[in-house]
Backbone:
């Protein structure tokens, strides 16, 4: 891993990668050259899943991991004169081109190998052909050599390989040069990889062409990295595995692996102690996982067990799991937290060849078994040209599934087979039964606080811990009453904690990280099934020497403790004698570092004395003592114990007054706490109940905990993490504004980039609080963090600002605007940019030499705000204003009335968000810019919900939903789980509308620059970086407050990364988030933006008074409501007001440019040299270090500062699609239709979208209905087959298809059927991939086979018939009819609010497989449901006609027998009798 | 949550019942009734609970308005009373006499949409009702510091200071020349706006908090200021402004012309049954009265005259209605009660002779450019003079401070305007040039609203507490 070299925000630690992957194995372990050849061919057909450099030759790396090709290597070895023993090994090593460095490395490796008692035979220069490399790859091309090693006679293979493992790890520690990299060193596998395109792999490595190169297993991988610096070592596969996806939990996993090192003791591993750290702490997540697997394997565990332990399925929440299997997972869960994906893994250790998916199954893995006994698994189906009639079976791996070839026994093991092997290896269930104790909640904690505090005492605590009345009422009480977090609107307009003049909680310095693009967040509500808060308390033991003591654990269902549970824990039967109680209240004269020393020492002593619990408590405050903040203490103790190697021997329990909202708990747990007891919350709730008329007093505590648990799920799922044990210690935060002295001491390893408050600042805060706490005259604070309160926290949109702005835009008077601008520009420091002062570039110039207002206005866009959030009046006024002034308005999510297309009321930017509401071909072709909203500032990593009461007739029509039915936008885009998926969506959009620019909206967080680089490589034309403070939407308060970073950091990082990677000229960069004045615009330009987004500003111009009640639909200004009275009587906005706003800003920009001596805004882009950091007002502000933001270090001076390319065209030219357009265009233009035939391969992507766009452009969504094109295809279709399909386009494919079939379909039909001569049973075989019909709004799909995960997700109108489906079928569906003629996966119909489904339940287990929250199921009885009986039959008949399905035919033959086995699945809210009726109405 | 988001549309703004005009002009009692619990809750529930509480922002003491509205909606009266007193020492009085339409209610988001929340009436309700039910300020935590402060003037500034000092464990003794506390609250504001019983209740509350009142005592006359300075650790001056601003035109000293304050005070004296020797009653029954001035005091004079039985009352003001400084509510009440308004008319001269006033000569005005105070200045329109017949004229142009002679000896400096000079951004707010003496209210800022006087009294008391090291 490269180190950060310059003092800037570019940090290789943020690099992410993703890919296409696969393996081919002969089930009987028969080696052949064919396996190698075919693997390479398959890899080549996954080229589109990787990234390609502009030269067309440099990729991000690809490679093979081959089961030891002994024949070949023995021959080569002999040729070189080596005397090879019966058992020998070879390793591939990258060496420096520097002869001396290479020689030293060779020597070190040889010495390490010899040191383990093995015989080094010598080195072979691997033949390579550098012509295969692009220029960039060539620049870093290593010397590639192979090392041959003999095993002493009689040494068993296992021991031999362990020795090699040790030798390699020791050599790696020894060698410090950056070039040397041991790609593999083993007697069972060898790797060939490099920075070339798959097609050039054999050219680069002539070895691979050698017919003697034979193997039975080949794992292959094609990488898509977010960076462009060719790093040969980062190519995959690693020593055992290749990985597609990302390990979200990597930070925690690495920390725990280090903490746990001493527990890895095995007689087989001679000495693991010199492997410190046992896994790599830098480098890619995949390589760390590979290391971990290697350690477990070296310790004696086989790979299938090791992988299952590291990446378990969602066993906690699945009801019908085999109890013995459950026991296996539960047993190991006490010792090892999961490595959560999204991950698809292919691996081989020579003994097994296997593929597995993590519990969420978010990566595709399709397999094919042919009658020559070869298994192929890959990201896509159809990666080589097997003959369908030779296919024995085809399928896909589901979430948490594993498929393995036992190469010794020549058998294929599926998930159940593997479970059967694993569960019997030890009496897990018995051990657990004996060892595990559960803390259950039989004891409802009725009193909440057994010893309620007196009012005075309570007030002292509340003041001591800075608990305001606002927080009690708006946060705690809401949690306790509603069991969920309060919702707010309009984002966060307060200063970051470090900038604030008020005392802020140390928690406020922490920003939650969230998943965007490179990994997906999870929907913790609808996909609850994968989530777990189960918390184990107890010690950990050696994983290689298991026994009953491993199961001696106390298990609780949540880390949020009630008083009763805490008492149980501390009871004599539990830990009364086995805990050490540490007071966090320490003498007020101790400095914080001293206090932490005391606390850590006490904790260490406790653990050394064998105490299993370390209890940190601030419960006993007293005069003369100050509480050390529990987060500081927890982090410090956690890291101290890790450093001392004691961490896994104890659990940290925190009893504290500072934990109140879910973020607080997340922080404490994220820095190591096992469980938290929030006593002050209970006391305060008790008080609330005591004062007020709260009827459910006894349940407040329980409800509060439920609310927090939901919040914790939300925080975890935002990062795509399912299990609290993986979240614990994972430190998934960015620290904004703490000094390194604190970060290093307490939060080591957390990203923190601008310094800030030190220990003394925090201690000073606590002193002030303590003084008030003991002063009875001081009232508890009123608050002011969430909304403006006089004397409270500064709010950027305070009443003065709003009032002056509205007066200005209504009057059109620039002087009045300047009153507003002065209020903003001279406010107390509230944002990072307020600490940056402009420096002139030259002498001031006359204003008339500066570019005009009209030149500047096109740089302004309005931010995406949906119709639904805004009233139609406000939405249209905004569009008119932006169009008239030459900017662009953004439709937001939720479609747009087609009557607006082509008029001045049209939004030029069309948003595509995760709900895909209203996204059709016609909508997309009407756009100038299509924006993919990955995240939004108010709640990055979260989905949204439009409550039913806001869905009126108009909204429902535009969103293809029913009035009154709530609509859900999922947290992730279900077609973007990684960067290559985003590339695919961009490709889809460019296919349907080749003229539009595609924009991707991201939210600032550490690493966003790296993600942006990946987005550029995915061929986006524009990128928006939003700050935390943006966001007009409704959002849970803790999301508003604690997620996302300032755009100053995100924008600057992005600009720096793009420049450093020579990509800045390929993409336009926009920023948004609280931009208010011309000064903001100028500063944003200097930090790297060339375009500027505004959300709140234009809203205020239209009359919004920043009431923060948007989510209630009662906006009294008529801006953010659908209420007719409010819209018609109280909305006063006019487009002119918005135009005034933007013209004023442009005018202010002009004045600033004149002062700075610059003619054009363009000349300021990226000019960080013109920004000068200002010393802040407060102590902590003045400790900030903004140099990394304002740095141009390490960047080429002449690297472009802004976009110069017109567009960022994809490498894939979509040749087949172009042929199809050429063939059909006359028929489209003449509206004559016709039949056309083509062959397809898996690399022909988005087939159909290109035609749909051409049709939509000419005839709209419905215009070709009567003269359809019949497109007849043969083969395997690539991803997004039939995307955005519309009326007039009927696709029939004989073969199979990959993911995203019928994405966004609005009309027409898609038929997928197997070939007539197929050798497999169609209804048991996967025929289409994951996430089909995502966001479809109409049309029909018939597929004669099984569909993957999330079939029909967010479907709002398509009708479909398939013969089986994976998990989460019909998720978030709002309309349409889905027929599944076979089994489904779990969690059917989660979040389904409309439409209905028929499911054939032959196994009679559907009841366990559907999500009971919103839907119910009914039998079709001939007596009462005549209509359904006929309707279902008509759909099956249509299916038979379209596909010729034998299975459907069988059902029809005996319809009366099958009928009772069908369920009608419908939303609970819908009337059974009206389902069909509503279909007729819709038609 | 439980709250209905559209309550503000469905429940219209409703003030407490107002007595009919014919009844109310027959007496001097308050004209507004009170809410009952349900109607207070319903009206409070109209609050949108804005992210930007414009009401609180506009309120000079920054009352936590949305917060106590919510408590009232939830029926948590005592908590509301407690919270209301955190920012305001005289909430039930401000609830009655504040020009809410220019402050909280004028800023209320709903002001532009279906009517502002009736903040003033609810504020009044909170304390009235809570006190009725036995609520008293919670003094249980207060520890006596042994410090004492003398307060000169029992008007809103002095009372507010006494309140805050008491809550800080500082005993205070309030001196006032009048027989009852309240200053202008009692004697300047007519009882139809503020019944004197309300002030008496407040006195009971304050006395319950340990504040002592010494009345009928004029400092400088009945007790020397030096004596005061010696007796107390600090002194607060809250003596208000009592010198009338004159119009500077001829005829102001004619018989039948009176100044607003003596007129109003005389009336209250009669109502309270005080000895009228020093403060004579001015009876305008049967007279055709012209009131000059468009402030709240002018309105008070208008309506007092009506109740005294004046034959007619005409109020002349030199700007237009929109630019009147007085509360729109009081203008409306005046108008309802029969007052005739003449906007854009400026008096030039009062006509008459030793027998009395006969009329007022006025000239029409129009609004010109804005003056230094930001308000547009009236400019006379030539050739538009008219004579308005009158039997009596009340001049209500405002008041200036009347610094007593003993200021100089005590080292209390004043500005040219007569206002007391206090530390603007000094260590202790409202400290005068004599460190031991603090001052606040109208005598510092010039005549202004009750609520600003309360604000200054409170801030000064905090300054005193810090000065005394409490």
Residues:
């Amino acid at each position: 891993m490269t180190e950060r070299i310059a003092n800037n925000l570019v940090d290789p630690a943020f690099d992410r990668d993703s890919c296409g992957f696969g393996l081919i194995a002969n089930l009987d372990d028969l080696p052949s050259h064919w396996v190698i050849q075919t693997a390479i061919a398959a890899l080549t057909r996954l080229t589109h899943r990787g990234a390609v450099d502009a030269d067309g030759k440099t990729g991000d790396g690809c490679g093979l991991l081959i089961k030891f090709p002994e024949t070949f290597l023995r021959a080569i070895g002999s040729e070189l004169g080596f005397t090879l023993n019966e058992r020998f090994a070879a390793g591939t090593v990258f060496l420096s081109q520097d002869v001396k460095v290479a020689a030293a490395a060779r020597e070190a490796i040889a010495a390490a190998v010899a040191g383990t008692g093995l015989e080094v035979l010598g080195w072979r220069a691997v033949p390579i052909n550098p012509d295969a490399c692009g220029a960039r790859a060539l620049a870093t091309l290593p010397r590639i050599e192979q090392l041959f090693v003999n095993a002493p006679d009689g040494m068993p293979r296992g021991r031999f390989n362990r020795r090699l493992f040790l030798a390699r790890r020791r050599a790696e520690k020894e060698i410090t040069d950056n070039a040397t990299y041991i790609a593999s060193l083993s007697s069972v596998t060898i790797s060939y990889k490099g920075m070339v395109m798959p097609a050039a792999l054999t050219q680069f490595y002539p070895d691979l062409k050698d017919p003697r190169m034979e193997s039975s297993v080949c794992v292959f991988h094609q990488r898509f990295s977010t960076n462009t610096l060719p790093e040969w070592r980062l190519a995959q596969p690693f020593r055992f595995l290749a990985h597609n996806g990302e390990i979200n939990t990597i930070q925690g996993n690495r920390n725990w692996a280090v903490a746990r090192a001493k527990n890895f003791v095995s007689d087989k591993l001679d000495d693991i102690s010199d492997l410190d750290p046992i896994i790599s702490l830098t480098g890619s997540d995949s390589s760390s996982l590979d290391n971990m697997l290697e350690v477990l394997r070296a310790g004696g565990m086989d790979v299938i067990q090791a992988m299952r332990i590291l990446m378990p399925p969602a066993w906690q929440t699945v009801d019908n799991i085999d109890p013995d299997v459950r026991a296996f997972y539960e047993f190991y869960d006490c010792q090892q937290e999961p490595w959560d994906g999204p991950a698809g893994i292919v691996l081989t250790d020579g003994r097994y060849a296997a593929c597995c998916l993590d519990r969420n199954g978010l990566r595709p893995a399709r397999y094919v078994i042919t009658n020559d006994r070869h298994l192929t698994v890959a990201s896509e189906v159809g990666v080589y040209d097997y003959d369908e009639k030779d296919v024995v079976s085809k399928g896909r791996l589901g979430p948490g599934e594993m498929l393995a070839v036992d190469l010794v026994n020549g058998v294929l093991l599926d998930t159940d087979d593997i479970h059967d092997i694993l569960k019997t290896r030890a009496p897990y269930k018995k051990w657990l039964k004996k060892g595990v104790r559960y803390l259950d909640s039989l004891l409802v904690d009725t009193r909440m606080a057994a010893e309620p505090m007196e009012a005075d005492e309570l007030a002292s605590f509340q003041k001591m811990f800075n608990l305001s009345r606002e927080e009690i009422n708006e946060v705690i009480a809401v949690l306790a009453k509603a069991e969920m977090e309060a919702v707010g609107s309009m984002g966060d307009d307060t200063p970051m904690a470090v900038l604030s003049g008020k005392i802020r909680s140390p928690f406020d310095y922490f920003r939650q990280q969230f998943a965007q693009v490179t990994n997906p967040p999870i929907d913790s509500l609808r996909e609850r099934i994968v989530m777990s808060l189960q918390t184990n308390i107890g010690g950990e033991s050696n994983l290689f020497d298991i026994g009953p003591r491993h199961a001696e654990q106390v298990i609780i269902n949540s880390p949020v403790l009630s008083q009763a549970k805490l008492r149980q824990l501390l009871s004599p039967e539990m830990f009364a004698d086995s805990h050490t109680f540490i007071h966090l209240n320490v003498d007020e004269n101790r400095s914080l570092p001293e206090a932490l020393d005391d606390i850590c020492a006490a904790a260490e002593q406790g653990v050394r004395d064998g105490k299993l619990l370390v209890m940190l408590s601030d419960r006993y405050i007293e005069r003369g003592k100050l509480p050390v903040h529990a987060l500081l203490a927890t982090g410090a103790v956690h890291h101290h114990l890790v450093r001392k190697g004691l961490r896994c021997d104890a659990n940290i329990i925190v009893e504290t007054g500072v934990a109140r909202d879910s973020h607080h708990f997340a922080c404490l747990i994220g820095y190591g706490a096992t469980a938290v007891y929030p006593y002050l919350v209970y006391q305060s709730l008790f008080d609330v109940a005591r004062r007020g008329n709260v009827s459910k007093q006894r349940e407040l505590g329980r409800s509060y905990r439920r609310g927090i648990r939901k919040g914790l799920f939300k925080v975890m799922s935002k990062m795509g993490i399912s299990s609290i044990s993986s979240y614990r210690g994972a430190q998934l935060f960015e620290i904004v504004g703490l000094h390194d002295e604190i970060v290093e001491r307490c939060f080591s390893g957390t990203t923190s980039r601008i310094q800030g408050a030190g220990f003394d600042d925090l201690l000073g805060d606590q002193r002030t609080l303590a003084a008030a706490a003991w002063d009875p005259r001081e009232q508890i604070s009123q608050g002011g963090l969430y909304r403006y309160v006089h004397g409270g926290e500064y709010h950027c949109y305070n009443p003065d600002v709003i009032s002056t702005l509205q007066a200005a835009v209504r009057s059109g008077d620039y002087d009045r605007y300047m009153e507003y601008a002065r209020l903003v520009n001279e406010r107390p420091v509230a944002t990072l940019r307020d600490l940056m002062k402009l420096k002139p570039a030259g002498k001031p110039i006359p204003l008339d030499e500066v570019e005009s207002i009209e030149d500047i206005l096109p740089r302004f866009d309005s931010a995406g705000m949906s119709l639904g959030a805004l009233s139609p009046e406000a939405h249209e006024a905004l569009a008119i204003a932006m169009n008239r002034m030459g900017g662009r308005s953004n439709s937001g999510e939720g479609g747009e009335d087609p009557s607006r297309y082509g008029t001045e009321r049209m939004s030029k930017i069309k948003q595509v968000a995760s709900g895909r509401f209203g996204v059709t071909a016609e909508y997309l072709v009407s756009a100038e810019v299509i924006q993919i909203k990955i995240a939004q500032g108010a709640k990055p990593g979260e989905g949204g919900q439009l409550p039913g009461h806001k869905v009126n007739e108009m909204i429902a029509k535009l969103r293809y939903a029913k009035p009154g039915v709530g609509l859900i936008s999922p947290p992730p885009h279900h077609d973007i789980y990684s960067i290559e998926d985003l590339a695919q969506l961009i490709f889809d959009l460019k296919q349907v509308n080749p003229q539009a620019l595609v924009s991707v909206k991201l939210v600032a967080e550490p690493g966003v620059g790296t993600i942006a680089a990946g987005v550029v490589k995915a061929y986006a034309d524009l990128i928006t970086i939003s700050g935390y403070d943006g966001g007009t939407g409704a959002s849970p308060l803790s999301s508003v407050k604690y997620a996302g970073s300032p755009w100053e950091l995100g924008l600057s990082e992005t600009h720096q990364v793009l420049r450093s990677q020579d990509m800045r000229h390929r993409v336009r960069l926009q920023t948004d988030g609280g931009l208010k004045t011309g000064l903001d615009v100028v500063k944003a330009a200097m930090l790297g933006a060339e375009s500027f987004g505004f959300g709140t500003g234009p809203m205020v111009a239209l009359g919004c008074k920043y009431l923060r009640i948007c989510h209630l639909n009662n906006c009294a200004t008529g801006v953010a409501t659908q209420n007719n009275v409010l819209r018609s009587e109280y909305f006063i906005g006019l487009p002119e007001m918005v135009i005034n706003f933007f013209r004023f800003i442009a005018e202010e920009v002009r004045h600033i440019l004149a002062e700075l001596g610059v003619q054009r805004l363009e000349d300021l882009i990226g000019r960080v040299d013109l920004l000068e950091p200002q010393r802040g007002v407060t102590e902590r502000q003045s400790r900030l270090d903004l140099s990394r933001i304002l740095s141009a270090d390490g960047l080429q001076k002449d690297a472009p500062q802004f976009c110069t390319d017109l567009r960022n065209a994809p490498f894939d030219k979509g040749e087949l699609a172009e042929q199809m357009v050429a063939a059909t265009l006359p028929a489209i233009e003449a509206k004559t239709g016709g039949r056309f035939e083509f062959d397809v391969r898996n690399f022909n992507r988005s087939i159909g979208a290109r035609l749909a766009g051409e049709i939509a452009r000419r005839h709209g969504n419905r215009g070709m209905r009567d003269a359809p094109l019949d497109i007849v295809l043969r083969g395997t279709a690539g991803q997004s087959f039939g995307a955005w399909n519309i009326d007039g386009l009927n696709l029939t494919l004989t073969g199979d298809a990959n993911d995203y079939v019928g994405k966004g379909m609005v009309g027409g039909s898609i038929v997928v059927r197997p070939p007539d001569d197929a050798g497999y049973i169609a209804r048991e075989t996967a025929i289409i991939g994951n996430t089909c019909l995502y966001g479809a709004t109409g049309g029909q799909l018939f597929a004669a086979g099984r569909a993957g995960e999330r079939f029909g997700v967010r479907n709002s109108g398509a009708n479909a018939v398939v013969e089986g489906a994976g998990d989460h079928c019909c998720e978030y569906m709002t309309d349409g009819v889905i027929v599944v003629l076979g089994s489904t996966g779990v969690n059917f119909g989660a979040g389904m609010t409309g439409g209905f489904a028929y499911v054939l339940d032959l196994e009679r287990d559907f009841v366990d497989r559907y999500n009971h929250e919103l839907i119910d199921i009914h039998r079709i009885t001939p007596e009462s449901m005549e209509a359904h009986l006929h309707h279902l039959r008509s759909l099956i008949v249509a299916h038979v006609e379209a596909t010729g399905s034998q299975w459907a035919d069988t059902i029809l033959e005996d319809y009366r027998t099958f009928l009772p086995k069908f369920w009608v699945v419908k939303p609970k809210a819908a009337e059974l009798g009206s389902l069909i009726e509503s279909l007729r109405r819709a038609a | 949550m439980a709250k209905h988001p559209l309550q503000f549309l469905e429940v219209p703004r409703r003030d407490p019942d107002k007595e009919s005009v014919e009844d109310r002009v027959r007496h001097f009692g308050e004209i507004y009734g009170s809410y009952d619990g349900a109607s207070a809750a319903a009206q409070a529930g109209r609050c949108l609970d804005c992210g930007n509480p414009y009401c609180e922002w506009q309120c000079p003491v920054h009352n936590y308005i949305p917060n106590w509205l919510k408590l009232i909606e939830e029926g948590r009266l005592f908590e509301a009373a407690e919270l209301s007193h955190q920012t305001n020492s005289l909430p039930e009085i401000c609830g009655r006499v504040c020009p809410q339409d220019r402050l909280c209610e004028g800023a209320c988001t709903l002001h532009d949409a279906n009517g502002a929340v009736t903040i003033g009436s609810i504020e009044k309700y909170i304390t009235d009702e809570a006190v009725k039910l036995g609520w008293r300020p919670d003094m249980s935590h207060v520890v006596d510091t042994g410090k004492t402060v003398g307060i000169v003037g029992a008007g809103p500034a002095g009372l507010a200071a006494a309140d805050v000092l008491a809550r800080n464990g500082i005993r205070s003794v309030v001196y006032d020349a009048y027989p009852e506390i309240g200053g202008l609250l009692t004697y300047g504001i007519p009882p139809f706006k503020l019944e004197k019983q309300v002030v008496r209740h407040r006195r009971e509350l304050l006395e319950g908090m340990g504040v002592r009142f010494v009345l009928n005592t004029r400092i400088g006359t009945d007790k020397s200021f030096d004596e005061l300075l010696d007796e107390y650790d600090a002194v607060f001056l809250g003596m208000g402004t009592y010198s009338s601003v004159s119009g500077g035109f001829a005829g102001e000293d004619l018989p039948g012309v009176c100044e607003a304050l003596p007129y109003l005070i005389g009336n209250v004296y009669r109502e309270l049954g005080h000895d009228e020797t020093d403060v004579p009653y001015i009876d305008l029954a049967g007279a055709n009265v012209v009131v000059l001035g468009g402030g709240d005091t002018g309105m008070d004079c208008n309506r007092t005259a009506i109740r005294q039985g004046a034959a007619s009352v005409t109020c002349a003001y030199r700007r237009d209605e929109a630019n009147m400084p007085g509360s729109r509510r009081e203008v409306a009440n005046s108008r309802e009660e029969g007052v005739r308004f003449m906007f854009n008319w400026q008096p030039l001269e009062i006509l008459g002779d030793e027998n009395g006033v006969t009329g007022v000569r006025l000239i029409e005005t129009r609004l010109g450019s804005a003056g230094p105070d930001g308000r547009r200045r009236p400019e006379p329109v030539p050739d538009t003079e008219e004579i308005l017949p009158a039997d009596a004229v009340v001049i209500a142009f405002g008041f200036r401070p009347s610094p007593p002679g003993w200021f100089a000896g005590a080292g209390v400096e004043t500005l040219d305007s007569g206002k007391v000079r206090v530390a603007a951004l000094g260590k202790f707010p409202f400290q005068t040039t004599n460190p031991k003496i603090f001052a606040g209210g109208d005598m510092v800022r010039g005549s202004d609203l009750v609520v600003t006087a309360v604000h200054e009294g409170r801030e000064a008391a905090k300054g005193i507490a810090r000065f005394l090291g409490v």
Remarks:
- Residues 345 and 364 of chain B are 5 Å apart (CA to CA).
- The interface with chain A takes residues 1, 5-6, 8-9, 48-54, 56-58, 62, 64, 67, 70, 74-76, 79, 86, 107, 109-110, 112-114, 141-143, 167-169 of chain B (CB under 8 Å).
- The longest helix of chain B spans residues 450-467.
